[in-house]
Amino acid sequence: MRRTVFNEDHEAFRETVRAFIEAEVVPVYDEWFAAGQAPRDFYYKLADLGVFGIRVPEEFGGAGIDSHKFEAVMYEETARAGVSFGGSGVHVLLGLPYIEMLATDEQKKRFLPKFVSGEEMWALAMTEPGTGSDVAGMKTTAKLSEDGTHYVLNGAKTFITGGVHADRVIVCARTSAPREDDRRFGISLFAVDTKSAGYSVGRKLDKLGLKVSDTAELAFVDVQVPVEDLLGEENKGFGYLGHNLASERWGIAFGAYAQAKAAVRFAKEYVQERAVFGKSVASFQNTKFELAACQAEVDAAEAVADRALEALDAGELTPAEAASAKLFCTEVAHRVIDRCLQLHGGYGFMNEYPIARLYADNRVNRIYGGTSEVMKMIIAKSMGL
Question: What is the pTM of this model?
């Protein structure tokens, strides 16, 4: 079946990204993997490539293209090469929607040019130790000063992707106590400057996968946040977070599909080269059947991911549809990558092979952005159950 989601511009961009990856990422990726993060100056190279400004209006230095399809191309190309762009993905996928939706004209003039140039990398700090998916249970507080010029931020966050290199972090904090009839009330969002006194980056977390993506613990001790850095209205943050979950979950779904597609490619290449009992592994019926089954699942996941992408670009992707796409694509990727690793035999367990890294990287897809179980709850509720 011919895909219709991409046009000539997207394919030209694909060629550019593929060449960039081969020149700037593949030769040094093992070093990044060992270091546990991509170097900060790499993000300036991404900025020069133009990837941070695709959806940013032209008046702020961007291309002004209101589409996620170029991001989708990057998901496919990084997966295809068995690499990642470090923690930079959250900069666009998580940071930009909040600026677009909530920032005032004055804030956009301050934030967006530096966002596009890579001078200020953004991250989102929502999760706290002990709260997990229960966002309304957060304990971090932001109290308005007596003179009304700033908020005083105190608390801690964990699992913050991009947290080591971030220059601005959208921090979710309680500005008011929850109401008896609405525990979600009282949360506000702040664009916090990471150079602020009292702001500190704790451990860079040692993860099972996504080794090149810096993930950190953050702590705030009497951090003064100017009132000019409040995003949106006070106490309405929970609603803002929910509004952007659909795009985040689409990103996870599309990334998972791209990983599954790459896994089939890696396995196909491996079994064609590897010989056992005097025959190529690809010649065995079991190998053919396994890869054929994996390809069928990838085809289905591609259709779901593409449909969600079209809906997202049209502004029509519902929370339930995003949850369904995330659930389906991440579960498919889990099955496909596992089967493709099996076809590698013992070499599939070695980190020098991209399938091993892919296996570890993929596991979190069914956890972050809402677990598979949470996705099922959202879908069931939309069904009237």
Answer: 0.93
Residues contacting 113, CB < 8 A, separation 6+:
60, 61
* Alpha-carbon gap, residue 203 to 224, rounded angstroms: 22
- Assigned domain for 165 exists: yes
Antiparallel, parallel or unpaired: β 215-226 and 199-204? antiparallel
Alpha helix positions (H), 200-318 = 237-273, 285-313
256 and 363 assigned to the same domain:
yes
**Chain position carrying tokens 């549809």:** 321
Which residues form the domain of 159?
Answer: 122-235
Q: Are residues 303 and 243 in the same domain?
A: yes
- β-bridge mates for residue 189, sequence order: 172, 231
Clarify whether residues 258 and 130 are in a common domain: no
Q: Partners of 270 in the beta sheet? A: none
Position 1 in a domain: no
Structure tokens at 42: 């790499």
- Residues contacting residue 376 through CB under 8 Å, at least 6 positions apart: 327
- First and final C-alpha spacing in the chain: 35
Using one digit for the tens of pLDDT, what is the confidence trace for 119-160? 999 999 999 987 766 777 899 999 999 999 999 999 999 999
Q: What is the pLDDT of residues 164-218, one digit of tens each?
A: 999 999 999 999 999 988 899 999 999 999 999 999 999 888 999 999 999 999 9
Same-domain status, 184 and 248: no
227-248 burial, b if ≥16 CB within 10 A, otherwise e? Answer: eebbbbebbbbbebbeebbbbb
Give me the active site residues, please: 248
